[in-house]
Design a protein that fits this description.
The chain is α/β, with parallel strands linked by helices and 80 residues long. It contains two helices and four strands. The protein is globular, with a radius of gyration of 14 Å.
């Protein structure tokens, strides 16, 4: 099992570089034996993918997915 700081660095790096979650409003907290995902995503698929992309790196810790699904409202446009 890796140490807490190393795990924190792995998770942070993974959330910044993984194509499934890059650009999403996702954060995390390490609590006892849990990894708590916090923030918001647009779809339930993104919520599930955020959890699954971390599964290989969290050892035997439980992933608690507290991400909020907040779909973009109709008529609301963003500029690119």
């Amino acid at each position: 099992m890796i140490g807490v700081e190393e795990l924190r660095n792995h998770i942070s790096s993974h959330l910044k570089t993984n194509a499934c979650v890059v650009g999403k409003n996702i954060g995390f907290e390490l609590r006892d034996h849990d990894v708590l995902l916090v923030g918001s995503v647009r779809t339930y698929f993104q919520k599930q993918m955020a959890q699954e992309c971390l599964r290989p790196i969290v050892d035997d810790r439980r992933i608690v997915n507290a991400l909020e699904v907040a779909p973009r409202q109709a008529g609301h446009r963003t500029t690119s």
